[in-house]
Amino acid sequence: MLCKVNQKNNFFTLVFFRIKFEFMKCPSCEHMETKVIDSRMSKDGATIRRRRECLACGYRFTTYERVEMQLPMIIKRDGRREPFVREKVIEGIKKACQKRPISMEEIESFVNELERELLESGEKEIPSTFIGEKVMAKLHEWDEVAYVRFASVYRQFQDVNEFIDQIQQLLKNKKT
């Protein structure tokens, strides 16, 4: 706790303020002490964004804090099992949505919902196809171009005819 004394018109004002120092390695100089400048909770309440400053070099950076959850293992198409990686899902969606009118906030919110659904399922293992289909359904709802981009990778299109079939399917569904 630090104290600051202000004098104005022969009145003294004591101002107390607290600076919290934490140990987190600076990405610039690797010094271990930083201070939190600003903390904000995300709209959905699942993440805290912290703005930090290195006490050694003054470099400012952002960290995100969220509860670590025991998500189910993901069973890949080839039978391998790997942990659910939130960032991997986000990157796949971001690639599909590149130069499309989908905000990062919408993507983050969807992935939060997906994580919640995986947790609530109570399953220890979930096939990757479950996640892929959920992502495709959301992209179909958001943006047809992003949907086709994702589908081309997810469904492993081999030639132009598969693209054409997917687009014709979209157009057919749009008419009904």
UniProtKB/TrEMBL annotation:
GO molecular function: ATP binding; DNA binding; zinc ion binding
One biological process term in Gene Ontology: negative regulation of DNA-templated transcription
UniProt cofactor(s): Zn(2+)
Pfam families per the UniProt record, alphabetical: ATP-cone, Zn_ribbon_NrdR
Domain ATP-cone, chain residue ranges per copy: 72-162
Protein family (similarity comment): Belongs to the NrdR family.
NCBIfam families in the record: transcriptional regulator NrdR
Described function: Negatively regulates transcription of bacterial ribonucleotide reductase nrd genes and operons by binding to NrdR-boxes.
Protein name: Transcriptional repressor NrdR
Gene behind the chain: nrdR
